[in-house]
Amino acid sequence: MVLRVMQEESRYLRPELRRQPSQSCRCALVISNKVSKRSVIRNKLRRLFHQHLRQRFENRRDLSGQWVLISLRPEASGAEPSQLLEECDSLLSSAGLET
After folding, report:
1. pLDDT class of 39 with cuts at 50, 70, 90
2. What is the pTM of this model?
3. Helix (H, G, I), strand (E, B) or coil at 4
4. CATH code of the domain covering residue 85
């Protein structure tokens, strides 16, 4: 799993989103076909991570203006979901995003 954090650049957002002030950080998740050829599995992982990140960042006003990108590596398909979430939490804490 790879974590990248950067400062928000509004020029990359859609015009209707540029006018809205960001309430918290924006998160993106990349799960390629190399993780799993089956879209059902990729979508389950995507839903799992979105729920996890929503719980972590829901009320974090101090992170507004930050973009977070999480990219799963191909080895992630064989790991247990709890292991993946633990790795995600450890990456977030090492990046200073976890409380």
Report:
1. very high
2. 0.82
3. strand
4. 3.30.230.10
